[in-house]
Write a structure and sequence with these properties.
This protein folds into 2 domains: about 5-25 and about 40-130, Sandwich (Immunoglobulin-like); about 140-410, Purple Acid Phosphatase, chain A, domain 2. It is about 15% helix and about 30% strand. By secondary structure, it is of the alpha+beta class. The structure holds fe (ii) ion (2 copies).
Length: about 425
């Protein structure tokens, strides 16, 4: 049991009775045309009285959270086990209609089934409701998804969700690089812009989000921090999965949030995890970019020197609603470009913008500039990362049709990075 799950739960319980959203609220600044009426056919498996289907948070080797919102009476609980006989039960805590269950005592690297109840009444069960625990550092074969800018107002995020759940192999977890919910990151918009269209992802694939500028438009302490259950301060945090270390950062509205503390924490976290086989970092605003967004000096000045020093393998961002992959960069300059797109021991960090998970920028093409290895504009897409021993394959596909957009491969002759540069 990781301590932060307990901390998150305590923080959650200390929140005064919160406004329940149920997807009925509307923010005041949208020019959207939501397709609220369209529901996934799988929603038929959700019982009346349900307001938000279960979503997984904080997946670890031996525990996970299951969160849902329901008005149904009766003691809220999750039954879970390695078969649909379940066998174990976790009683949830409640805050209004919001329920949080901590599932403990799980076995690493194991697929579980679960169902959600209110008293004796089953609210959600079926083939959708499964999850797989982290197998731990000995595991050198896994995959995850990356996308960003998903919580669209036009319903396009649904196509990306359908593509993710149809992927073979299925991603074991995902990271979201900000702009999770448009237009203001408000709790009132979470259900219709993310939780419902992404239900089939969220109930079976744990996601780890980072804040984007739109998520900052409503006070994070009353919105973001209510919807997510994340380690550390929920703005910048890290976690391990298999033999890799993941770091989420917060670039606020284009500047580094809580700058001194975040940069200091980042350096300490990189130092403490410098022997991880792989290090992936994700946040919202790209630093160096040739997309329609401008370079971000705060990111370049504060983060990139640390990525260089600690040999971060790949950085994922969003914000630009397009796809861009740069050649490896070290100390602000391109290195090893001649190896593209199959790198052996690249001497720099690879930066990828995968920001078209729900939004797609049109009529403002990415320009070809020095560091650009590959870009693709005007198509909805998402990225899947496969680790297989000392090889990392990063494949980006179109959300509709699954056509491959880009693939880059990194192979290391030696996994351990040992010392900072
Ligand atoms: Fe965005
Ligand atoms: Fe953004």
């Amino acid at each position: 049991m990781r301590g932060w799950i307990t901390s998150a739960l305590i923080a959650f319980l200390s929140v005064s009775i919160a406004l329940l959203t149920g997807g009925s609220g509307r923010s005041d600044d949208d020019d959207d045309d939501d397709d609220d009426g369209k529901r996934s056919p799988r929603m038929a498996e959700i019982a009346p009285g349900y307001m938000r289907a279960p979503y997984l948070q904080g997946m670890a080797q031996d525990s996970t959270l299951v969160v849902w919102v329901a008005s149904a009476r009766g003691e809220p609980a999750v039954d879970y086990g390695v078969t649909t006989d379940y066998g174990r039960t976790a009683v949830a805590t409640s805050d209004g209609d919001r329920r949080v269950a901590v599932l403990r005592g799980l076995m690493p690297g194991t697929r579980y089934h679960y169902r959600v109840r209110a008293g004796e009444r089953v609210l959600a069960q079926g083939p959708l409701y499964t999850f797989e625990t982290d197998a731990g550092p000995a595991d050198r074969s896994f995959n995850f998804f990356v996308t960003a800018d998903v919580g669209d107002t036009k319903g396009r995020q649904r196509r990306t969700a359908e593509s993710i759940v149809a992927a073979d192999p299925r991603p074991q977890f995902g990271v979201l690089c900000g702009d999770i919910v448009y237009g203001r990151g408000s709790s009132a918009d979470y259900d219709r812009r993310l939780m419902r269209p992404w239900m089939e992802v969220l109930c079976s694939i744990p996601v780890w989000p980072a804040l984007g500028n739109h998520d900052w438009k409503s006070a994070p302490q009353d919105n973001w921090e209510r919807e997510w259950y994340l380690p550390h301060n929920e703005h910048y945090y890290s976690f391990d999965y298999a033999n890799a270390h993941f770091i989420a950062l917060d670039t606020n509205d284009g500047d580094v949030y809580d700058r001194d503390n975040q940069v200091r924490w980042l350096e300490q976290d990189l130092e403490a995890n410098r022997n991880a086989d792989w290090i992936f970092v994700y946040y919202h605003h790209p630093g160096i970019t040739c997309t329609y967004k401008e370079n971000n000096d705060a990111v370049i000045d504060n983060f990139l020197p640390l990525f260089d020093r600690y040999r971060v393998d790949v950085v994922f961002t969003g914000h630009a609603h397009t796809y861009e992959r740069l050649y490896p960069i070290y100390q602000g300059a391109v290195v090893d470009a001649e190896q593209d797109p199959r790198y052996k021991d690249p001497k720099g960090t690879i930066y990828i913008v995968s920001g078209a998970g729900g939004k797609v920028k049109e009529n403002d093409p990415t320009s070809l500039c020095g560091p650009t290895a590959f870009f693709r504009d005007e198509v909805l897409l998402w990225t899947q990362v496969f680790i297989e021993d000392a090889t990392c394959t990063i494949r980006t596909v179109e959300s509709q049709g699954g056509r491959k957009v880009d693939e880059v491969v990194i192979t290391k002759t030696e996994l351990a990075r040992k010392t900072p540069r």
